[in-house]
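Posting this for the archive.
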Amino acid sequence: MLGTIRAFWNDQRGVAMILVAIMLPVLIGFAVLAIDMSRANGLHNDLQKGVDALALATAAELDGRADSITRANLAKTTLLTNKTKFSTSDDPTSHDHTLAVADVTVTYLTGIPADDSITLSAAGVDANGVNWASTDPKAVTFSLVTVNASGLADGAGAFATIFPASFIGSKDTFDIQPQAVAGFVQSICETVPLFMCNPFETTDPLTSKTIQQAFASGDTYSREVQILKVNAGENPGPGNFGLLDNNLTSLRDAIAMGTAGTCYNRNAITTKTGVTLGQVNTGLNTRFAIYSGSLNSQDKNFAYRPSTNVRKGQKSNMCNKYSPVSDGSALPLPPGANYTKGKSDKITSQGFWSAYWLANHKTNYVNVPSKTNPTGVTSEPASRYDVYRYEIDHPGLVEDQSNNPTKEVGTPQCYKGSQAPTDSPDRRLLNMAIIDCIANTAKINGHVQIKPDGYASVFVNTPIAKQDNSKDDEDSTAGEKPISLEIVDVDGGFANNTLVDKAFRNEAQLYR
């Protein structure tokens, strides 16, 4: 009996089965855990892609307009009709769950911490206690999207594991909460490297208006705005203009071609000191088929083409200088009256146009409708831009010959290029930054970043003339007359959207 027991004790046959029986649960546990980690990682990646897309979609609407948050919320609701596949704790056999609005928190922010290591809560408060969240649609530029713990598994708030963690005192679920931050970036690309001081800015907050407010109320309509660079050492204010940094070697070429060679951030532009007014004049006047100074050889170059309507009150064959006739036989678009801070009174009477129409079209004025009036009223006296467009849009008017002896026509006689000028884009429209120069006095005369009040589409009424018209346009001793403009459109929620559609580029990008 004792020998039988000793033989059994020393018998090692089947010992592997014992080891397998002991280790099998461990091996299966590690295998199941690896499967869970793989599933969780796959789910996290899928959800991360989802919140990235949601952050980009909502941030793309944060353009500073009054309805930006409303549009962002609509984008959120629309995008969340998609489905994301993941495990559910109450029914492991079901893998489809609609990620609903209640499953995510979307918070709109005015900014984010510069250091990416500083975390943000779903409410927009960073680890240092700074609250970046805001409900002001004009102030927010970032969208923070966080998947809620209660939104992962049909309300259970967790990812259901296969590994039975409850056997070792843990839970069979855990949270997966990816987060994404995207921001709105708006740039303007087709613009000249000029800024104009806001002619509606005052030192009194009760009377000062943004360019968008002035436009929406109709205050900009039909006013002539005359802008001129201030003398050295003086601070620019309403009625002045200056330069912006650009990527083109020649300021003259940037003005003539209508592009700064770079895109400007909607919220940050850099001013540039020193204005060579002769280059500004020479560049702008190509739009009227006037090729003076260093551009006298560019009359065949399509990049320097004129507008399709260059009527300006001078002889058609005078190609190198602006010298309006004085006998009234041909007239430019008429100037305004009673200038205050660079802007004239509005046009108040249809009779304002009688002399212009009679001299250039030899007939009585036809009461052109005020089509571009931002208030929507078309019966007011037309603006200069309205009359200019009316001449283009009605066959024969641009070609009309003015009275003797000038006999001017509106078609560009001095442009010799083989490719004819086109009406789109309109060469007498410029996109220009508008700056509150009173509020930014200390920053204007240096290479300093400034947030512009906005951007405007401005119409160039007439070529730029010299005080001493006997001298060349690029002669700095000739003295400068102001640049004559009309504001046709602005950016923002009150605009006619012609500027945004043609010039602005809206982009949303992920930051976290």
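The first helix runs from residue 2 to 10. The mean pLDDT is 76.
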